[in-house]
UniProtKB/TrEMBL annotation:
Keyword Iron: yes
Keyword set, alphabetical order: 2Fe-2S, Iron, Iron-sulfur, Metal-binding
Species lineage: Bacteria, Pseudomonadati, Pseudomonadota, Gammaproteobacteria, Pseudomonadales
Descriptive protein name: 2Fe-2S ferredoxin
Single GO molecular function: 2 iron, 2 sulfur cluster binding
InterPro entries cross-referenced by the UniProt entry: Rieske_2Fe-2S, Rieske_2Fe-2S_sf
Residue span, Rieske domain: 9-119
Iron-sulfur recorded as keyword: yes
PROSITE patterns: RIESKE
Length: 123
């Protein structure tokens, strides 16, 4: 696939991406099958590095969070699925506990372009 098939999409000003904040967005270019619902994702800082994943638990293919912007477990160490409690490493998306252990979140490309944060589906 080419960059043309997966264009960069602006999701927020870089100044919005502060430690502990998770910013949700809808992907413009792809819908979730078979329902045709828009795919959603989230971006956050892992240390000082921006990370972005699809908001899609590999267990049942549903969104991870019930509360807007709430993705971390009680200890603030892992991304946690609110449905069955699967835990994911923030830096890699790898599931380390729960029904989808060994699977992983789908990472998105993320970059800062000027004063904006942009994402795109990985090729
Ligand atoms: S739907 Fe996420 S752990 Fe079951």
């Amino acid at each position: 696939m080419t960059e043309q098939n997966h264009p960069w999409q602006t999701v927020c000003p870089a100044t919005d991406l502060v430690p502990g904040r998770f910013i949700e967005f809808r992907l413009k270019q792809k819908a979730r099958e078979p329902e045709g619902m828009p795919l959603t994702g989230f971006v956050f800082l892992d240390g000082s590095e921006p990370k972005a994943y699809l908001n899609l638990c590999p267990h049942l293919g549903i969104e991870l969070n019930w509360m807007p912007g709430k993705f971390m477990d009680a200890d603030n160490l892992f991304i946690q699925c609110s449905t069955h409690g699967a835990l994911f490493k923030p830096g890699t998306g790898e599931c380390i506990a729960g029904p989808c252990q060994g699977d992983a979140l789908t990472a998105l490309d993320v970059r800062q372009n000027g004063d904006q944060i942009e994402i795109r589906l990985e090729d």
